[in-house]
Amino acid sequence: MKKALITGNRGQDGAYLSRLLLSKGYVVYGADRAGDSGLWRLRELGIEGQVKDVCLDILELSNIMDVMDRVHPDEVYNFAAQSFVQTSFEQPILTAEINGVGVARMLEAIRKTCPAARFFQASTAELFGRAGEKPLTEGIAFYPKSPYSVAKLYGHWITVNYREAYGLHASCGILFNHESPLRGEEFVTRKITSAAARIKKGLQEKVQVGNLDARRDWGFAEEYVEGIWRILQQPEAGDYVLATGETHSVREFIEAAFLAAGFKLEWSGRAEGEKGLDVMTGKALVEVSKEFYRQSEVDFLSGDASKAKAELGWVPKVKFAELVSIMVKADIKRLEVKR
Ligand code: NDP
Ligand code: GDP
To answer: Would 159 disulfide with which of 50, 102, 121, 253, CB 3.0-4.6 Å?
Structure first.
């Protein structure tokens, strides 16, 4: 039986990957910080208690070395991150320690204790930042635009460097945004689907958001962890873009989510005064607030995952409208079960 160790196991991707690996017969070690944040995800997936808990903070090298020495994993998936872009503007140093230097700590621990282990690093489409409005693929120059992505840039290159310098089987997935009912509510998709569900149930009046016109390539997380697993099964380590190739604006996401909850919206006003009105009642269900604008924005992301298709046979099937509908339905169902 193969042993996999997943850092950030109780986050969105960690939970889905745990379920996938358990179904493949792996022994899964969930390496998380102390506390029970995120346990709800494992519970929702019905795998609570099936993952072996190990206490690991990516800030602490000796802790990581001890864990690696004890577990001796065959595969290591590094999902641990301060993963919210907005928070990285408020906590740039901590973000660098976790998302950047943390990756070096992981690699150093592997090199010293279990160099045969395969390592996956969760890199991000945010690395491309200001690359422009074109399909983004491996080899296009990075131009990160937030402390989050600057830190992830270090994490990306240190992984490539350990592969080249020490021969570690270390790969990066350059992951475009991927969402699900397990996404944190600080991210715009889940914030919107959760609000649309609560408004439908009369538990909330409206939702405030920031930039409506940013465009993202949103896929379904459950399919992305399959791609991530396939990356580590390759005989040679390498870097792969995982993306759907479709791009939609935040505005389109809002329209689709509210429609899935039973509200048709029309837009009124401009810039910070813009509102999404319920066509039936004229009530403002969505408002724009400066509070949610970014200091420095990535306006456009759309990925080209041809390499993943050709080498991994990975092709995402869940398209935008289905993704939105899955998320809204799940949020409505949660509220109905709670009552
Ligand atoms: P989540 O935010 O859901 O999960 C991140 C996990 O990292 C949480 O479990 C968190 O634990 C843990 N973590 C944070 N700090 C530390 C630390 N110091 N030591 C150990 N663990 C820590 O992210 P996702 O599952 O969505 O993403 C997985 C990875 O993929 C992340 O690295 C993210 O940056 C990257 N990525 C994700 C994309 C997406 O669209 N989802 C796109 C591109 C990249 P806690 O609950 O204790 O804070
Ligand atoms: P990101 O792509 O990793 O930054 O994922 P997010 O879901 O946090 O943000 C996606 C895009 O939505 C960014 O361009 C944000 O500026 C935009 N956005 C607009 N309103 C909001 C909001 O209220 N919350 C968040 N998180 N993002 C918002």
So the answer is: 121
> pLDDT tens digits, residue range 167-218?
999 999 999 999 999 999 999 999 999 999 999 999 999 999 999 999 999 9
**Domain co-membership, 241 together with 108:** yes
Please give the tally of structural domains in the chain.
2
CATH of the domain at 253: 3.90.25.10
- CB distance 121 to ligand 1 below 6 Å: no
What pLDDT score does 206 carry? 98
The reply to whether ligand 1 has any atom less than 6 angstroms from the CB of 118 is: no
Each residue's pLDDT tens digit, 96-155: 999 999 999 999 999 999 999 999 999 999 999 988 889 999 999 999 999 999 999 999
CATH value at residue 89: 3.40.50.720
CB 106 within 8 A of CB 64: yes
Test site for ligand 2: of 188, 287, 297, most ligand atoms within 8 A of the Cβ: 188
Give residue 19 CA to ligand 2 midpoint distance, Å. Answer: 27
* Contact present, 294 and 213 (Cβ < 8 Å): no
Q: Is 214 in the pocket of ligand 2 (CB under 6 A)?
A: yes
Q: What is the residue with the minimal CA distance to atom 46 of ligand 1?
A: 37
User: What does the alpha-carbon distance between residue 228 and residue 79 come to, in Å, rounded to a whole number?
Assistant: 11
Return the beta strands (E) in the chain as ranges.
3-7, 27-32, 52-55, 75-78, 118-124, 169-175, 178-179, 207-209, 215-216, 219-220, 239-242, 248-249, 265-268, 275-278, 284-288
User: Are 283 and 222 members of one domain?
Assistant: no
For ligand 1, atom 28, which residue shows the shortest CA distance? 79
Instruction: Judge if pTM exceeds 0.90.
Output: yes
CA 316 to centroid of ligand 1, rounded, Å: 21
- Residue 117 to residue 78: CA distance in whole angstroms: 12
Tell me how crowded residue 264 is: count the other CB atoms within 10 A of its CB.
11
Q: How far is the CA of 152 from the centre of ligand 1 (A)?
A: 12
